[in-house]
Amino acid sequence: IDELKGKVDLTVALIHEGTPARQSSMGNTDVRRALDKDIQTASQVKGLDILITGHAHVGTPEPIKVGNTLILSTDSGGIDVGKLVLDYQEKPHQFTVKNFELKTIFADEWKPDPQTKQVIDGWNKKLDKVVQQTVAQSPV
């Protein structure tokens, strides 16, 4: 971040960190976890303005402020899209949140972008060839 001083207006980090949390005595895991790790990261990284997080699979209805850093998170699997609108002043370096919203995305309300769909379909075709390969057989 020190290398970016004077070269950028805001520093924004997109992270996806953490380990699955144990959810039962049976040892099952789930990726859902609290935002504690993200809060810790925001408090330790000086000069970071905005931290957009993943892995917690928890949406933040409002940005969380930790020191001078805003933490934002949408839910998981493309369920929500977040929109952040800021008011920014260069001198002194400061910004305020004008608006933040999480918008839930319903599959039946959106049409796929044809170019994006073509790329995804191409990768799925390649992936299907790999996934369908037999790698071992067992008599059991």
TrEMBL record:
This is Multifunctional 2',3'-cyclic-nucleotide 2'-phosphodiesterase/5'-nucleotidase/3'-nucleotidase. Gene3D superfamilies: 3.60.21.10. PANTHER family: 5'-NUCLEOTIDASE-RELATED, PROTEIN USHA. SUPFAM superfamilies: Metallo-dependent phosphatases. One of its GO terms (molecular function) is 5'-nucleotidase activity. GO terms for cellular component: outer membrane-bounded periplasmic space. One of its GO terms (biological process) is nucleotide catabolic process. It comes from the Bacteria. It comes from Salmonella enterica subsp. enterica serovar Poona. InterPro entries: 5_nucleotidase/apyrase, Metallo-depent_PP-like.
